[in-house]
């Protein structure tokens, strides 16, 4: 519980925002592994001495191997409004990705059509629209470089399944540790070097208030270098 408490980035009566670790799952899946949502519920139950079940809404998710910002809602009003903001582009999202290259320019905009393969739990990015695909947009800039890797800052303009991973792979760029999308080796922690770094949005209840959150990167040698 102490570990989770140290990773809480924001908390009020309507929201609780957590810095997710690589390997954590946000909500239950077929693995049956314990979820971040369960840990947050237990934290709230203990902190506020709540009897019975604790309400916790989940307006978005992060892939299991990805780290960074996850927004949870403590009220139904906040959840319905956050759902709408995530759906309609009302949440400004910045990711950092350690990659084996860049898409060819120090900065640019990628536009693809992404189609999800449910059976393989993967997505593929196409240059043109294909049946069942969704238009996908992101902007990127090169913000760091080592002998072996490049650090990209990515402004996500749409929110598709595995969007960043699939769009970069379509450009021949692979995120460190991401075996599923073509990187040759896994990371020691089993995660990938993709981090939800920053999020900004109008507070779902106190709309005149802006919520602006930045998540510290994972504590390992690769991230420490950058």
Give a structural overview.
There is one protein chain. It is built from five helices and ten strands. The protein is globular, with a radius of gyration of 18 Å. The chain is 19% helix and 33% strand. The protein has one domain (2-225): 2-Layer Sandwich (Pseudouridine synthase). It has 226 residues and is an alpha+beta fold. It has helices at 2-6, 36-47, 76-88, 163-170, 221-225; strands at 8-11, 15-20, 67-73, 92-99, 107-117, 122-126, 134-145, 150-156, 194-202, 210-214. The two termini are 29 Å apart.
Keywords for this structure?
single chain, 226 residues, alpha+beta, Pseudouridine synthase, 5 helices, 10 strands
- What is the succession of H and E elements? HEEHEHEEEEEHEEH
The number of domains is 1
Mean pLDDT over the residues: 94
The CATH class is Alpha Beta
Q: The CATH topology, please?
A: Pseudouridine synthase
Number of helices: 5
Given helix and strand content, the structural type is alpha+beta
CATH superfamily: Pseudouridine synthase
How many beta strands in the DSSP annotation? 10
Shape: globular
CATH architecture: 2-Layer Sandwich
Biggest beta sheet attributes: 10 strands, mixed
